[in-house]
Structures are given as structure tokens and as C-alpha cells.
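Propose amino acids for all 419 sites.
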């Protein structure tokens, strides 16, 4: 009875653990909510938005100062009525700063999605590699054990025994490495998602393994070239150009008038019950400042031209990446076809080995099983490389990389012929 009670308590504790089941899509949702870098960028955006609001309020909001001396005190208030100069440019500069940071956040979110999917791929590949090494190690151990027995019977020698022991130990070390990589990647995934690394999780890679590689298609570069301006780096550089242009306008102060209304209320200590007030409207026109504003303006214009050079270089690089995409696709697809053909051969070889098992060709069967598992890993890796390639193409034109899993890829077109 005590044993049953203890068993029931143990089972209740085991099943009461909250095991989180993670798929790539669910993990992306968690990462966008909990990732620490995303949270930091959002806080920076809030800070820049406050600066932007401050600049807007600073333009026409009234200001009141109190001056106190030995004779008395006075209150001085003023408000800007009309601004013909640099204050609007300063507001625009603050707004552009917010826009730049928002573009950086959007790109980081896209990179987070790619990173999460890549971690799932690393987990799946490490798990498959462990399976391969486990099978290879098992075959090597049987051969090693068989050679030891043959040595006792005088049918082998110590060199062959040492050789098979070395092979077995090598496969075992590689198995430990694959298992270590698998567990490390699980911990890294939990850390990246903001999940307690001690919390148990169940990782599902079905979304990746069930991805169907398109056939008889190639990359439509015309489609991508029409949308390359969505690239985040191009957007950021264009915003930086606008920012430095706006900062240059801020420095234009000579002959830029400002119209103020002010009210001055004064009082003397010997006549505390008497106040004298004076109000007026003043037009301020800067005439000369020793050319300092000219040099500041030219400095920002030089920075603007420097960014324009960067922007043009980035534009050429984006176009280059688009134009070479069809060749990368053909290479990746050829490697995928090669992996599929190898997997088909490995399956035929495994079937043959199974049919010959009755002839005591057990070692051939073991090798055939490990070869088949390695072939499956190669197909998996080739499929994953295609997924990452397509995700990066989406990111290149500033679109959501997770669209890869939504069905038809819009920048594919039918292949008309082989090269």
C-alpha cells in the first residue's frame, strides 16, 4: 500500500511539471515578446519618442522665468508666435531618429525569426547526427568485441583489435559531441527565448521537416528588383540622409526671423503691494554669428554626402545579391537532389542488406542502417539550407521571413530550361 501511495505521488509530481512544447512559430512568438534585445530597443524608441514630443512642445510652449536681486524680483514670460527658421528642422530631426530606431527594431525582429529557426535546425541536425553516430558506434563495438573473441581463439591479432577499438572510441567521442551540441543548443534556445534554462521543454521540428522543396522553379529577379527598396539598410541610410539634411537646416540661423510675445511683471521690496507689468511683441532677426552656423551647416552636409556614398554602395550590393540568387538557388537545389538520390540509394542498400540478413551478413546490415540514417541527415541539412536561403531573400527585401512557411513563395517562377 505504501508503495502504491509513493508511486502515485511520484507520478503526480512528474505529470504536474509544466512542459512547454516549442515549435518554430510558437518560439518566434515567445522571442518577440521576451527577447531582451528587443525589449532594450523598444525602451530606446520610447526614449526617442519622448525627445520628439519635447521638441514639439518646446516650439510654441510658453516659458516663464523668475529673476531675484537685492532690489526685488520680476517674472518674465515669453511664447514663440511664428517660427521661420530652424525649430521645425529640429523637430523633424527628432522624428527621423525615432523612425531610424523603428527600422532597426523591425530588422532585428526579422533576424530574431531567422535565428530561432536556425536554432531549431541545429537541434534537429544534432539529434540526427547523434543517431548516426550511435548506429556507427554500435557496429564498431560489435566488430571490436568480435575481434577480441577471435584473438582469444588465435584467429586475429592485436593490431586489428586495437584498430577496431580505436574506431569504436572515435565514434563514441563523436556521439558525445553530438549529444553535447544538442543539449547546448536546447539551452541556447531557451536563453534566447527568455525561458528559464532549467525549465523542461519539448522541441518539435515537424514544421521544418515537413517543408516541401519547390520543383522546376527558379528565382524571379524582376520581382525582387521591384521590391529591393524595402531593404532595411537602404531605408536606414535614406533616413540618415534626411536626418543630416535636417540637422544642416537647424544651423541656418542668419536672416531667419522669429516672432515672440512676452510679458514682464516687476516688483520692488519696499512696495510689495505694487506690481508693474509690461508686454510686447518682438521680432528677432539674427544678422551675424561669426560664420559659426555656416561651418556647422557644412559639416552636416558633408556627413550627408558621406552617407549618400554608403547608400549607393548598399544599393549595388542588394542588387548584386538579388541577381546572384538564381545561381545560389540552383546550387542549393542540386545539392538537395544529390542528397535525395543518395538517400534513395541508401534505402535500396538497406533493403538488400535486410534480405541478406539470413546469410549472417549482420555487419553489412549495421553499416546499411547507419548509411541510411546519414543519408536522411544529408537530406535534412539540404532542405534546411534551402529554407534559410529563402528566409534571407525575404529579409533582403524587408519582408517577414516566416512567410516561407505560409505556402507559395511569390518570387519563384517556372524554370524554362537547364543551364
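Proposal:
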Amino acid at each position: 500500500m505504501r508503495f502504491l501511495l509513493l508511486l502515485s505521488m511520484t507520478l503526480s509530481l512528474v505529470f504536474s511539471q509544466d512542459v512547454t512544447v516549442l515549435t518554430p512559430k510558437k518560439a518566434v512568438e515567445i522571442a518577440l515578446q521576451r527577447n531582451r534585445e528587443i525589449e532594450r530597443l523598444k525602451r530606446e524608441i520610447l526614449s526617442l519618442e519622448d525627445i520628439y514630443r519635447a521638441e514639439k512642445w518646446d516650439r510654441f510652449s510658453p516659458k516663464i522665468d523668475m529673476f531675484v536681486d537685492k532690489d526685488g524680483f520680476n517674472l518674465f514670460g515669453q511664447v514663440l508666435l511664428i517660427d521661420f527658421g530652424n525649430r521645425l528642422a529640429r523637430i523633424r530631426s527628432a522624428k527621423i531618429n525615432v523612425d531610424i530606431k523603428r527600422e532597426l527594431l523591425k530588422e532585428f525582429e526579422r533576424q530574431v525569426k531567422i535565428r530561432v529557426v536556425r536554432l531549431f535546425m541545429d537541434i534537429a541536425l544534432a539529434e540526427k547526427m547523434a543517431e548516426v553516430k550511435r548506429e556507427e558506434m554500435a557496429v564498431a563495438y560489435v566488430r571490436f568485441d568480435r575481434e577480441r573473441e577471435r584473438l582469444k581463439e588465435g584467429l586475429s591479432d592485436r593490431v586489428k583489435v586495437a584498430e577496431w577499438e580505436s574506431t569504436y572510441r572515435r565514434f563514441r567521442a563523436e556521439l558525445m559531441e553530438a549529444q553535447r551540441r544538442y543539449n547546448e543548443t536546447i539551452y541556447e534556445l531557451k536563453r534566447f527565448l527568455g525561458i528559464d534554462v532549467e525549465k523542461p521543454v519539448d522541441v518539435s521540428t515537424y514544421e521544418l521537416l515537413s517543408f516541401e522543396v519547390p520543383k522546376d522553379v527558379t528565382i524571379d529577379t524582376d520581382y525582387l528588383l521591384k521590391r529591393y527598396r524595402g531593404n532595411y539598410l537602404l531605408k536606414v541610410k535614406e533616413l540618415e540622409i534626411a536626418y543630416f539634411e535636417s540637422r544642416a537646416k537647424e544651423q541656418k540661423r542668419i536672416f531667419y526671423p522669429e516672432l515672440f510675445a512676452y510679458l514682464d511683471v516687476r516688483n520692488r521690496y519696499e512696495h510689495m503691494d505694487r506690481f508693474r507689468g509690461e508686454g510686447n511683441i518682438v521680432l528677432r532677426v539674427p544678422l551675424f554669428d561669426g560664420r559659426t552656423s555656416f561651418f556647422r551647416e557644412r559639416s552636416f552636409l558633408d556627413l550627408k554626402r558621406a552617407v549618400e556614398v554608403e547608400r549607393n554602395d548598399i544599393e549595388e550590393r542588394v542588387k548584386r545579391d538579388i541577381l546572384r540568387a538564381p545561381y545560389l538557388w540552383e546550387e542549393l537545389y542540386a545539392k538537395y537532389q544529390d542528397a535525395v538520390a543518395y538517400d534513395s540509394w541508401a534505402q535500396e542498400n538497406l533493403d538488400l542488406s535486410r534480405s541478406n540478413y539470413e546469410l549472417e551478413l549482420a555487419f553489412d546490415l549495421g553499416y546499411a542502417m547507419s548509411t541510411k540514417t546519414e543519408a536522411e541527415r544529408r537530406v535534412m541539412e539540404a532542405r534546411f539550407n534551402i529554407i534559410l536561403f529563402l528566409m534571407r531573400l525575404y529579409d533582403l527585401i524587408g519582408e517577414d521571413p516566416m512567410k516561407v512557411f505560409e505556402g507559395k513563395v511569390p518570387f519563384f517562377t517556372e524554370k524554362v530550361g537547364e543551364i
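The chain has one domain: 20-55+63-414. The two ends are 76 Å apart (CA to CA).
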